[in-house]
Amino acid sequence: MHSQSSKSVRYKVIKRKIKYARLEIKNNLIYIILPEHLKMDHKKLLEKYKKWIDKKLKILNEIKDISKDLKLFNHN
After folding, report:
1. Which of 20, 17, 13 lies closest to 43, judged by CA?
2. The pLDDT value given to residue 69
3. Where are the domains positioned within the chain?
4. How far apart, in whole angstroms, are the C-alpha atoms of residue 56 and residue 13?
5. How far apart (Å, rounded) are the C-alpha atoms in residues 49 and 7?
6. Among residues 17, 28, 19, which one has the least CA distance to residue 53?
7. Residue 8 carries which DSSP code?
8. Distance CA 4, CA 46 (A)
9. Model-level pTM?
């Protein structure tokens, strides 16, 4: 596992026994999950999907801000 921060985008690189690379976003952290058997440059993947990542992070942060003002009720 490999962890870094790039221009305010925090990410972790994880190698697994999978067929295809994928990106996951959890708690403002990008998980770059790569196949073990492939030599793939994670920085190129980050650059290729930069717009998508920025858009998703923006949406998630907006949802987080909205949720701060929500009140939850117990309907037992």
Report:
1. 13
2. 83
3. 2-68
4. 18
5. 14
6. 28
7. T
8. 12
9. 0.74
H/E element, 1: none
Report residue 6 as tokens: 């790039």
pLDDT tens for the chain, 76 residues: list them: 555 555 568 999 999 999 999 999 998 899 999 999 988 889 999 999 999 999 999 999 999 998 888 888 877 6
Using the structure block, give the residue that is written with the tokens 């026994």: 17
Cα dihedral across residues 64, 11, 16, 59: positive or negative: positive
Which of 56, 57, 28, 76 is CA-nearest to residue 12?
Answer: 28
User: How would you classify residue 37: left for phi > 0, otherwise alpha for psi between -120 and 50, otherwise beta?
Assistant: alpha
